[in-house]
Structure formats: C-alpha cells, structure tokens
Amino acid sequence: MQAKKRYLILLSAGTCLVLLFYFGGVQLPSSGRNRHDRSHNGYRPDQPWPHFSDPLQQFLLWDQPDTEEYNIHISPRQKRDVNTSVYKGKRCRMDSCFDFSACKRNDFKVYVYPQQKGEKISESYQNILSIVEGSRFYTTDPGQACLFILSLDTLDRDSLSPQYVHNLKTKVQNLHLWNNGRNHLIFNLYSGTWPDYTEDLGFDIGQAMLAKASISTEIFRPNFDVSIPLFSKEHPRTGGDRGYLKYNSIPPFRKYMLVFKGKRYLTGIGSDTRNALYHVHNQEDVVLLTTCKHGKDWQKHKDARCEKDNAEYDKYDYREMLHNSTFCLVPRGRRLGSFRFLEALQAACVPVMLSNGWELPFSEIINWNTAAVIGDERLLLQIPSTVRSIHQDKILALRQQTQFLWEAYFSSVEKIVLTTLEIIQDRVLQQESRSTLMWNSHPGGLFALPQYSAHLGDFPFYYATLGIKPYPKFTAVIHAVTPLVSQSQPILKLLVSVAKSQYCAQIIVLWNCDKPLPAKHRWPATSVPVIVIEGENKVMSSRFLPYETIVTDAVLSLDEDTVLSTTEVDFAFTVWQSFPERLVGYPARSHFWDSNKERWGYTSKWTNDYSMVLTGAAIYHRYYHFLYTNFLPASLKGMVDQLANCEDILMNFLVSAVTKLPPIKVTQKKQYKETMMGQVCVNLTNDLFERWHPMTSSRASRWADPDHFAQRQTCMNKFANWFGGMPLVHSQMRLDPVLFKDQVSILRKKYRDIERL
C-alpha cells in the first residue's frame, strides 16, 4: 500500500513538472543560434506576441545574388532552378522584367533594330524580321515601341554551325536601346553544341524574353518566354499548305497504328530513347525505324544492330508511313524538339510526344491534350497499349484538332511569328486578351481580335458553341457614289424596298459622292431610320469601316444601283441566320488558275461554279468590317482606294481566309440573267452588279473601260501573294426557297415573288 502511494506521488510530481515546462513556468537556456533565428523571425522572449507595427522585411530583388539566408525560404525546385540556370534573369516575369508604361502610351508596337552593315543574317531570320516589319504591330519609331527585336541573327547559337554569329555578347551590349534586355524579344531555334547541347545562347540575355524552340520546362519562364516549334529553313514564309486530312474516315484507323522513322544516336545526349525503340517495333502496325547511317564517323561507333536497322530503314517510304498512320511517335533528338512534330500535325497523324521536360510550342494558349498524346520516355513499352486503348471518337477529335492547329498557328513562319506577338500582346493588354476558347477553336486567335469585343457572343464563330443566335435584324449599308438628281433614281427605289423588309432595323447611306449631301427631304419616308453618313476621304475602303451606328450583327451591303425586291432581301437574311460566319448574297463570281500566264484569273461568266459573292448585294457579320479595317495591311487597302476597285474581292479573300469555306449564293430573279444575256452588259460600280441600266455615256464609258477588268485580275494576284496562297474556295451550291419552281400553286410558296419575272 505504501509503495502504491509513493508511485502515485512520483507520477503526480512528474506530471506537474511537465506542465510547468509546457506552459513556460520554467525556462531552459537556449543556444545562441536558436536565439538568433527566433529574434530574426520577429520573436522576443519578453514579448510573446508580435508587434505588427514592426517594419516588414524587404522582398528579395529578382536579380539579387543567391544567399544561404534566402535559400531557407525557397523550395528545393526553386533552388535547383537558381543553381542550374544558364540565364541570370531566370526569375523574370512580366511584372518584374517588363516595362508596361510604353505599351499603355502607344498601344502594342514592335520596333526592329536597323540591320548593321557587314552583319551576316540567315534567310530564316530575315524572313522573321520581314514578317514583323509587314505586320500591323510594326513601328519605325523606337520611342513608340512596346517591344524590341534585334537585327542580329540569334536563331542558330550552335558554335559549330556556319550560321553562328560571333562576338554577339559585345554587339548586344553596345546597342543603345538594350537596357539589359528589358522589353526585348529574342528568337532562337538552336542552342548549345556537341556533346551536351545546353540551352545557353552564348551571351547574357538579361531581362529579355525568349521565343525559343526545344526549350525545357526548367529553363522556361512561364508567362514570360514563348515556346515555339522547331521549323526548317524550307518552311513556307507565308500561307503554307493546308493539312492533309481531306475527309473524315469512320472508323478513323489507318494502315499503321504507330510509326516513326529517323536517326538513332549511338552516343551522347538523346540516344537512350531512340536506342530503345526496337523493343516495341513489330513490323506490322507498329513500325519504328531508326538508322545509324548519319554523320561522318558513324561506322566507328556502330553497334551490332546497325546493319539490320539500316536495312529495315531503307524498306519503308517515310511519306507513305506518315500519311497512313493513326499515331506518329515524336521522340526527342539531340535537342528536345523535332521536325517530326510539325510533320505529324500537317499529316493529321496524332503526335505521341516522347520528350520529357519539353515545354510544348505555344503551351500558354494551346491545350495539347486535345491534339496530342503526351507520353513518358521512361514508359516506352506502354506506348503501344496506350494508343490502342484510345476510343475511335477520341482519335477522330484529336485528328481534327491537329488540322485546326496546323492551319491556325504552324503552317508558315508568318503564323508562328504573329502568334508569338499576339501572345505577348495578350499579356500586355490583359483587359483585351483572348480566352482559351478563342485560341483553341475555329478560326483561332489570329483572326479573333479581342479589341473588337471581350464578349464571345459578339463574334459569329461561337454562336453554336454558346447556344445563341444572332440578332434577328440587319442594318442595310447603301454605298452611294452618284449625286441625287432625280426621284426616279435606283437608290431611292432600293431604299424603299429594303425598308419594307420585316428584318430591317435601319438603313445607312454612305455618301461617297463628291457632291454635297442631299437635303433631308429628298430621301423618301420609311418605317425605319435612315442615317446618311459622309464617307471618310471618299475612298472605297470606307464602305467597310466599323461604324458605331451599325448596331445589328448582320450587315446588308448594297450598291446604289442594285435592284432587289423585299422578298429577296428577306430570303437572303433568313439564309444568313443559319450561316452567320459566311458571306451570303446574289451576284457571284469565280477565280481560276491561268496555266499559260501562270497567274490567277477572274471571271464573271455565268456558270454552276463560283467562289465569290460580291458585296453589291450581300449579307455578312459586322465583325468583318472590324477585321477588314484592323487586320488587313495598309498596302492592300491603299491599292483598293487608289484603283477605286477590288474592295469586294478583298472582302471575299478575307472571309474565305477566316472560315476556310466558300460564300453562299442564294436564288436570284431570273430576269437578271436574261437581262444580262439579252442586253449590253455595263459594269456599274466596280463590276459588282453587271446588268443593263440607263445611265449617262460618261459613266457608262468609265465602267466599260477594259482596264477595269484588268485591274481586277491584278488585284486577285496581289491579294493571293499577301495571303500566301489562294484562300477562295469553289462551290456549286445555291440555296433556293422551299418549293422553288415546284409545280404547285404559287399561293403555297412563301417567297413567291422570286419566281416572278
């Protein structure tokens, strides 16, 4: 019993002692280091609660040298980034290494340094500079620039390359606008050299942004650098070929499931993955071919598999494999990027990425999970079973997305460069930046300009995705170029017919005549507002300006001498509501390739084939006014204004380039064709509506001038050259009203006036 009491007393005493220690009743002496650490963090023994009035510690500057004290507060990955970085500006971000003030003053403008005498420059880099200088971002005044691009060639920084520019470090530092690289963009395709191929460019880039191919995730600075694809010197400068997917096959399987054909590296970086490909090659639907036969000394390093690999390699045609495979393997080479990436995209062969640590091109804006399969080099043996498990619906979606991305961002050097600049502009003008949907769905970020609207529902391309419809009214814009001298003139009859349409919200008369505006009482009374606007500088392009008075989604563009009934207007607008992203109208024209003259030709012959609907009588979305004004270069619009011709052709080029589709022709009154065939054809207002109409001899001679038609031929080729190819698409479809020409009572037909002569 006594022993039991002693145990209880000892236990109680021990418990009390522990509680005293815990609540601070007894303080143990601490080491000097602990005291230093705790007081450094704001703790003092005589003051258990912190004083919030104490000054906060200063944030570490981005370029401050690494210290042990700073390293206490960063993650292991951050430490590794700091220690292994080849750039001093590794921690640069837009808010720390970019000056936004110049951009806010002058919008987003880009300055290219003048080329220095005697400096060699590669053709690829010259193409990049020319593209920037031809873009709407370019400025010749460095004082207005938001972004600067070097004229010194930085594309190839492999010291063994003949394109390597020596003494670049000194040359860059001597640039008077360099400012430690702030607000500068550096383009690079190749960095490092044998044997390790590091990502060092051989000079200090300071706070400059990188647009770099084969960039690793460790070097890549998110929302600061831009990862671009590796492209060859043969890559098209502008335009580029379309994707090879001509039609969708169901099920979407091809002859091969997975293919690859390329070099195998026997030694050095990048050899491990390609050396292991033979493990999954089955010579049937998985064909992965490599060759050792490259380089000067390949025979010195060849292994036991080389002869067999080389023989197997020569049996297959690469293009045939590429076009007949469902998936294409894209393993890393010496560097992380590979030409196989763009080749697979164009061929609609779903890329299977096998390059650990590669920051995929334009990863900031593109969701690559919708167009590629991201593999792991360490799990190579699982790749065949992985791609076989992908459902055919998913394969079809992946394949379609490869074609969209190829044509939107990768088919030419121009698209790669402009996409890079648009990404940076979105960062600078964040309030006007594009959404993910804009970048990853048709027509892509280059044609969806956020300066037009921040609301997706204001663009014609997203109605179906958002489940909405365009506003059920249109604004008619009548282009007037002749003085109003008689109450029987066609423009007044046209105005009355259009105003009677149940879908007409308002009529705008664009007065591009040299004579003064007519008095208000000269215009007929209508049930809808009629607004008369004097054209800016009286030029042809003014008819496509984004006037604030246009409040509807649809624009009915009309020439002053167009003859349309109210029924025809109603039917055309009804058709447009189902195709709001396209041109819908009546007078159609076509283009053709003249093999004798090796140039594009323009024809107005009546055939079953057309590729243009002229804007003398056409309906389209008002966004195309904004795009015409802000997207097209001043050189093309200046040409149109100088010739007073071709503005209709240019609008067709623009809409077809955006949609990749032809316009839509609707039923035309029979009398138009008969009149044209039975009477002398006189070209009125730019050949927009070829038909007979009484007019003065001076005006008739002006448009009957053969030079007018020759000018349109010239325009076709100038426009095709700027677009990098012919965007117009042929069509043989014409949309007619229900029961059109059917042998039934005319009273059963909704648009009965269209059939009447």
Automatic annotation (TrEMBL):
Gene Ontology molecular function, alphabetical: glucuronosyl-N-acetylglucosaminyl-proteoglycan 4-alpha-N-acetylglucosaminyltransferase activity; metal ion binding; N-acetylglucosaminyl-proteoglycan 4-beta-glucuronosyltransferase activity
Membrane topology: Single-pass type II membrane protein
The protein's name: Exostosin glycosyltransferase 1b
Family: Belongs to the glycosyltransferase 47 family.
Domain Glycosyl transferase positions: 474-740
Cofactor(s) needed: Mn(2+)
Transmembrane helix recorded as keyword: yes
Localization of this protein: Endoplasmic reticulum membrane
A GO BP annotation: ossification
Pfam families referenced in this protein's UniProt entry, alphabetically: Exostosin_GT47, Glyco_transf_64
Annotated Exostosin GT47 domain residues: 105-390
Protein function: Glycosyltransferase required for the biosynthesis of heparan-sulfate.
Principal localisation: endoplasmic reticulum
Pathways involved: Protein modification; protein glycosylation
